Amino acid sequence: MMSQQKTPVNYSELQLSDVLIDIEKTFKVKFSFNSDIVNNRLITFQIEEASLEEILSALEAQASINFTKVSNRYYIIKKQSNINLSNTQHLEEVLIKEYITSGIRKKSDDASISLSPKALGIIPGLTEPDVLQSIQLIPGVQSPTETASGLYIRGGTPDQNLILWDGIKMYHSGHFFGTISAFNPYITEEIKLYKNGTKARYGNRISGVIDIASDNNIPETLEGGMGFNMTHADAYLKTPLNQNAVIMASARRSITDAFNTETFKNLSKRVFQETKISNGNVLQEGDEVTTTKDLFYFTDFTLKAILKPSPNNKISVSSLFTKNKLDYGFLIEEFDEASQDKLDIENQGASLNWSHNYSNVFSHALSVYYSNYDLEYVGFNSIPDEFSDQLSKSNVIEDLGFSFDTDWSLNESSSLGFGYQFSSNKVNFKLAFEDSEAPEDNYNESNEETNNLHAVYSDFKLKKADRWLLNLGIRANYFSVLDKAFVEPRIQFESKLYKNLKFKASVEILHQAVSQVLEFNTQEFGLENQIWVLSDGNEAPLLKSFQLTSGFIFNKNGWNIDIEGYYKKIEGLTSLTLGFDNIGQLFSEGKSDVIGLDVLINKKIKDYRTWLSYSITENEFTFNNINGGNSFSGNSDITHHLTWSHTYDWKNFNVSLGWNIRTGIPYTKANGITDTTEGFVIDFDKTNGSRLPDYHRLDISTTYKFNLSENSKWKGKIGLSLLNIYNRENILSRTYEIRQGAASDAERLREINKSSLGITPNLVFRVEF
Questions:
Q1: Which residue from 121, 179, 175 is spatially nearest to 703, judged by alpha carbons?
Q2: What is the pTM of this model?
Q3: CATH, range 1-81
Q4: CATH topology for 223-768?
Q5: Residue 384: beta bridge partners?
């Protein structure tokens, strides 16, 4: 059907009447309306591919009109008599202008940035969108570990980010140890990112918010797609039951256990380097090791149903399941010593969402969710008739909650919302060790805590046309695990200074009662050595952050310049959370002070786009028992970070080139080994007193889209990408260990450097209908 086709849209300050004429010609439809409704209304709307439904929704938001479908061809246009707040918050927020590239927009009614994977332009190094890697295009969002899920937002750590998928809290967001995000981009409708100015409905995290929403529309006909690249394959299907109901399903699975592609080889080399797996459990130089088990795969599934029993009611049920499984075994034949490591990580959840409009000015939304995170690790090591030992670890989270929100449109320029949230978060941790030779060294430690969170909050918005915007939010949290309540004020303000210049500012206070800490018992394994724990006020203190931002936005003649400075203070950090090589397991509590400036310059010239993203940051740690109590550079402090990207579209071809350069992160240098009464120890220099070499990388991607049927119902895409074109060896981290040489009495200091990906190709092929 013509209404299901997608077409490029580029309206810039165009009269609504002319836009409607263009739509009629493109989609073979007809509009009936009173000319007074459309006169003197200018439309700005740019997107790479948009369906008729998407275009009409955008026009309704911009022009305050309603489209009523009479038949497949005819529509009636009426003026909105009143503004429905729940719809306004969903539609008006979208600023119909490109922020970086197509599919990324700065929202006009809050401080968030919206990403649409379906409309997202080609990105350097990626042949298809990745939900979390796409966010790294935005200044202030960094990944020092070169992963998709390891997102550091303005000095915060990944566990300080709130990640939601259809309202389900996610505690593990990556596949293959973070190299690929755990969310299927082909059933994702929108990713909403907050770096600051967070809405009051978001809580219990102190850094960024990543709110992911899956497809929320009911298609008229069956839709689906499938494809594969050099790491995994996927498929999705949207089956409408009638005009008011649809069932959607998707699945992805790695193909690496069947095909050992060059892409997977490079990713494996990057992930497993300097771990027990890559070292083959070698304890001494000269050991000959045979791999007896080699299994790894990841998978994810989603299922969603949408029902619209009436025009004023919408109900959706969503579910998600993600899994990563690892099973490696080794044998040192000379000693008949066998070793095996098993790791299973699952994150699953479900949610129910119901929205109801009582009138054009008042509505409510009810959401219920359940999330379960389960990490299980078991490591075996044995020699027949000599010894057998086993190390096991588990980390289980059960999170159940609901929220109730009301929205009230006071008038055309102001709105008010109230809400209540409850969540019960049970966190369990177990660690056990069994040694057949020394039973006295056996231990079995476990801990289980539950935090019941009660939160009430309110948001007030006042907007005067395009002149200024004020968002006031207040949130009060009660954490049962601490038996304390905390208040979080949040303010965002924007004002138009001149025709093309806008001033913006925000301030917020946030709290977090669940976070990750390092555990040192499985550090020999070298992977997933962080666990989730609840705050106890002592060794796991409550995290608190204060952030103040201010900046300017300039738009003129296709140029977009966004400059934002910020100050961020985080309290409640511990050495067990961050890990420091020179203090071992010593507990120390501290804080961080982050001062930064994010700059984005974007320009589009016909089919060519270029954008430059630059961040300058100073992240200082201060701990009472580290570095004499004096401040020092934070573990992930990247002083300068610059990316310069280019994209060009020609007919059905797209090509993208991007250069990424940044300062190396700090590390603690070792000066040598000292022989003490307790054995050899490493003599460390000043904490984080040295820096790794600068990081830089050049990436390229290209895709070609084509039709597989005459009516364009079946479409295909092929693509090629190259990461790190000139094969730069970037060092991501540097640590030290005391290593025993071939001679039993030979001890030496070994420098351990973990490097980035080398030149890595990837191919993609997709079919959609």
A1: 121
A2: 0.87
A3: 3.55.50.30
A4: Maltoporin; Chain A (2.40.170)
A5: none
